[in-house]
Amino acid sequence: MRWRHALGVALAALGPLLVAGCAGDEPYAGPCPAVFLLDEARTTAVYRPGGGRDLSDVAFWLELSDLKSACGFRGGLLAGVIDIEGSVVVRAEKGPEAIANAVTFEIFSTLVNRDGAVLRKALFPGLVRFAAGQSRAATVVAFESGVALLEEHSGDDYVVFVGFQSPARLKAAP
Description:
4-stranded mixed sheet, 4-stranded antiparallel sheet
């Protein structure tokens, strides 16, 4: 009988600690996934409709720069989610075939594990407007991603790549 009483006292004392651990109150102290601009998708050209693909057919040139990112954690000690948020500056310049004062585009964020497998890809639309008489403009586009994190993994097991989604890649995307 005594051992039951001792067990009850021990569980009563440890109960709040066990519940707190399962509630996810512990902050994520691990590293965030690295976020990079993908060199091959850092710049793009938008060509005039129906035209060729020569320099003289370019309506707009676009370039990504000034990448910023941060992450947070939600969940418990054994499993949770790392949320990744960021922004990138899109600089645009009118080309010889520009007739509009705005250009639309999409950027992607792709989450990859250390084996190179793509775990998640998301597209984010953007728009750059040019003031009257201006040939250059810029805007900021926000993006996000996330990864379920099990206890044997940390944020540095993942990488996020950001770049322009080209029309050719759009057709090939599942």
